[in-house]
Structures are given as C-alpha cells and as structure tokens.
Design goal:
The protein has about 100 residues and is mainly alpha-helical. Helix content is about 55%, strand content about 0%. The chain has helices spanning about 15-30, 30-45, 50-55, 60-65, 75-85. α3 crosses α5 (about 75-85). It is globular and about 40 Å long.
Length: about 100
Amino acid sequence: MSKGPAFDAAKYRNNPKLIAKHLNKALATDDPAFTIRAIGDLARAHGMGAIAEEANVNRAGLYRSLSGEMDPAFGTVLKVLTALGVRLVARPAADL
C-alpha cells in the first residue's frame, strides 16, 4: 500500500468489501501505526463526524487517535470498525 497509488477515499465510501481488503493489506505490514492511519483514512473517507457519532466517540479525539501518532484504545478501534461496516476477525497465521 505505501508504494502503490495514492489513497482514493471515494471508492471506499460505503464499500465494506474494499474496506476489509484495504485493512487486511495494512495489517499485513505488521506496522500498528500504519494500520491505525489506514483506519483513519477510511474514517475520513466516510466522514469523521459521521463515524464519531455512530461510534459514540468525540470527533476531535478520534482524529487524534487515528493519526498514527498515538495508540487508540482497543474499544475505540472496534467501534470505528463497526461504524465502517467491518469487523475484526482472527485467523491462524499462515506459518502456524
């Protein structure tokens, strides 16, 4: 993702399949800050105010939390993912 084309927010708006694909690529980097920034990009694509309202969190705090500069609370991440129409799923690593 970091070496590909620029993030096109419009194609991710209201498209949970593309959102999940984007997040899986971010997760594959094993870089938590990168993944959080990807979640932030997706939240901004939807409209941070709408995501904050649906997740029942403060909009300004959500911007800070999803900047990649800090570690957001796990509960906040789960609320944002739910508001984006995706859920966190665990699966075995390929090498296990």
